[in-house]
Design brief:
By secondary structure, the chain is of the alpha+beta class. It has 17 helices and 37 strands. The termini are far apart. This is phosphoenolpyruvate carboxykinase (GTP).
Length: 745
């Protein structure tokens, strides 16, 4: 009998390269074979496991049948076994039969287990896998263990498709995938939360559509699942991935089991979350989060694929059952919508779990800032997508003797410690999955160094030399080097230089170098400036929380809130300009608008409840790197490494002056928005900026903002708006008219 390693390797050779010209194959039956069949004419790329009718799936104890049925497809003969044996190819291309362990499902039959010991899994996990395998009619089960061998094996499997390629000039295991352009990002309109009562999910006024969690009834949810997932994995392998958000075995971590028929998803789970067979012991008899994902294309294929990318855009759907802690995703191939452990669990579902357990799950980076005196501060930073959160976390300071280290760049779980009363932030993820537009070696050297091995690029360009390119990379081309953009188009000479001049307004054009949603994914342990406490199960103690936005006018460079309640109001009313060409201003409270998993009003109340006499509250600050000169349209602030100057002022605002005479006085101005730095207290050495314009608070602009905030609260929370929010809004209106708040304190 072949070794387990060889057997799994051979099985994967049976999975065909998905072809745009794939045609339907007639239903057929065939039994197991227990002898080797010589078939040297069968190419590995198109030999596949048989899709067996349900009636033929009868539990068997051994290989007893000898019938085989050959089917002509595209002038190639496919030899089809039944569910209890697999056709495997040896190095000579010969077909052989090999036994594997089986899972016998009542009323369905036996499903081969290609890897792992199914019987050793916890009982609840076995029941979950069997139940979903029966519904989705999977042809085989693969139990993932998170090993290096498994990772390499999945890479080889994914490379069989034309959607993924190696970038040989960039380093080992540097891969590029180009998706169907219609399957980019997460469509919030197709993301739902199912609960018994609408009020638990939505708080909008009558007739107003929720901008956040979108409610459907449990019966609607069940109907949408049933209409999509029945038989959806027919002819495909179901990968079973045990995962942990947070260090494995930690009391603050969440454990889950992710089912998927996508190798692309399995590979990204290896990078972005913790995958290990040790998780079965960590789960034990306890419950776990259940994630079910399918590309929604059972075999035989009856639709034409775009770029050999597996997805079903027309029926795509993401549904969250908060009571059952179960998430279903159908038809999605993009990681945001298919790797459910990331946004769906770590943010959307975790926010609801945190509400019940007294903590917060937020869309935040976590960084360490060390000043020239060696004093370290931990800061969380919440920014809407595309506003520079990852750039802040991975920044290389432009001012000497400052140091930035990253704990995480996307998700923060915030809990108060009962012993010292401080808020601690934990990064539950294992690696970044970040927007790449604008990243280059001058601004983000540490991030670029991270991309030298074991990194996945999605929807960027590549060159004839095997290098990745994206908007804003700004690296010269070799004389004979050509570019293929993210849509697979060869660009002309004029377009070859376009990537040097990143412009968000043009990033969605068909001839752009990379997609506006182009990403890279890797492991944090590869990052040069990773903090040694990044995997601390307790997290790190926060001194401040920064909220950011992108506003071309009105919003100053940096503001400190008057209080925790005032900070919650400012964060709840956060508005930011979208990356689209028309720069629409959108509400994105706390930078969490896309990920709030329950009633928005209750979400704000939960933030307010965090403050208590026993808790030491971190200070809140608000920043805007994107203010522009009205006449020239140019940015007023250089950003990137120069943002350390803002962090310098923030950290000095955190220091108690009683700590010693060496603490530099941090002067401030009290303005209608809060506390802002005076020009004398801010390090502007070597910069040429219009300080007054950069930090002005125009009354007319903010009067309009107050009207927009009030309308937003009425629409999204109605009569359930927390009274604290209404009081803070009225206070802001009064302050705008009061010159007293423009005096130097």
């Amino acid at each position: 009998m072949s070794s387990s390693r060889d057997m799994v390797k051979k099985f994967h050779s049976l999975t065909p390269t998905e072809s745009p010209m794939s045609k339907a194959i007639p239903k057929h039956k065939c039994s197991q074979m227990d002898k080797k069949l010589s078939s040297p004419s069968l190419p590995q790329s198109i030999t596949e496991t048989c899709r067996v009718n349900k009636s033929s799936r009868k539990p068997k104890t051994g290989c007893c049948g000898k019938r085989k049925k050959n089917i002509k497809r595209n002038n190639v003969t496919d030899t089809k076994p039944d569910a209890n044996s697999l056709l495997l190819l040896d190095q000579s291309g010969n077909v052989s039969a090999c036994s594997v362990s089986n899972v016998h499902i009542h009323g369905f039959g036996a499903i081969p287990v290609l890897k792992g010991d199914f019987k050793s899994l916890p009982t609840k996990a076995q029941e979950f896998i069997i139940e979903k395998a029966r519904i989705m009619q999977t042809s085989a089960i693969y139990l993932c263990d998170g090993s290096v061998f498994e990772y390499e094996q999945m890479i080889e499997e994914l490379l069989r498709t034309s959607a993924t390629k190696r970038l040989v000039a960039s380093g080992p295991n540097v891969l590029l995938t180009r998706t169907d352009p219609g399957d980019v990002g997460q469509a919030s309109a197709r993301v739902f939360v199912a609960t018994e009562q609408r009020e638990t999910t939505e708080a909008t006024s009558a007739g107003v559509l929720s901008k956040f969690a979108k409610w459907i009834s449990v019966s609607q949810f069940q109907s949408m699942v049933a209409s999509r997932f029945l038989n959806c994995m027919r002819g495909r392998v179901m990968y079973v991935v045990p995962f942990s958000l947070g260090p494995i075995g930690s009391y603050n971590s969440l454990n889950g089991v992710h089912l998927s028929d996508s190798v692309y998803v399995v590979l990204h789970m290896h990078l972005l979350v913790r995958v290990s067979s040790a998780l079965w012991d960590a789960i034990g008899d306890s419950d776990f989060i259940r994630c079910i994902h399918s590309v929604g294309l059972p075999r035989p294929l009856t639709t034409k694929l775009v770029r050999n990318w597996l997805c079903n855009k027309e029926k795509s759907f993401i549904g969250h059952s908060m009571e059952k802690r179960e998430i279903w995703s159908f038809g999605n191939g993009a990681i945001e919508s298919s790797l459910l452990a990331k946004e769906c669990v770590a943010l959307r579902m975790a926010s609801a779990i945190g509400r019940d357990e007294g903590w917060l799950a937020e869309h935040m980076a976590i960084i360490s800032v060390t000043d020239p005196n060696g004093k370290e501060y931990f800061i969380a930073a919440a920014f809407p997508p595309g506003c520079g959160k990852t750039s802040l976390a991975t920044m290389v300071p432009s001012v000497e003797n400052w140091k930035i280290q990253v704990i995480g760049d996307d998700v923060a779980w915030l809990r108060f410690d009962q012993n010292d009363g401080r808020m601690y932030a934990l990064n539950p993820e294992n690696g970044p999955y970040s927007l790449i537009a604008g990243v280059n070696r001058r601004r983000n050297p540490n991030m670029c160094e991270m991309m030298s091995q074991d990194v996945f690029f999605t929807n960027v360009a590549d060159t004839s030399k095997g290098r990745p390119l994206w908007q804003g990379l700004s690296e010269p081309l070799f004389e004979d080097e050509t570019i293929v953009n993210w849509r697979g188009r060869n660009l002309d000479t004029v377009s070859n230089a376009a990537y040097k001049h990143f412009d968000q307004n043009n990033s969605r054009e068909s001839n752009s170098i990379s997609s506006a949603d182009a990403r890279f994914s890797a492991r944090w342990k590869q990052f040069k400036a990773i903090h040694p406490l990044w995997e601390n199960p307790k997290g790190v103690p926060l001194s401040a929380i920064i909220f950011g936005c992108s506003r071309s006018e009105g919003m100053p460079l940096v503001v400190e809130s008057h209080s925790w309640t005032h900070g919650v109001f400012m964060a709840a009313s956060l508005r930011t300009e979208s990356a689209s060409s028309n720069r629409n201003v959108e509400h994105d409270p706390m930078g969490m608008g896309s990920f709030i998993g329950y009633n928005f009003s209750n979400y704000i109340k939960h933030w307010l409840k965090m403050e208590s006499t026993d808790n030491k509250m971190p200070k809140m600050f608000f920043v805007n790197w994107y203010r522009r000169d009205f006449n020239s349209g140019k940015l007023l602030w250089p950003g990137f490494g120069e943002n350390i100057r803002v962090l310098d002022w923030i950290t000095r605002r955190l220091v108690n002056t009683s700590e010693g005479s060496q603490v530099r006085v941090c002067d401030f101005l009290e303005t209608p928005l809060g506390y802002q730095p005076s020009e004398e207290s801010f390090n502007l050495k070597g910069l040429n900026v219009d300080w007054s314009l950069l930090n002005s608070v125009p009354a007319e602009f903010w009067q309009k903002e107050c009207d927009a905030i009030e309308a937003f609260f009425v629409q999204q929370m109605g009569k359930n708006t927390p009274p604290e929010m209404n009081r803070e809004l009225e206070k802001l209106r009064r302050n705008i008219k009061d010159d007293h708040y423009r005096q130097n304190k």
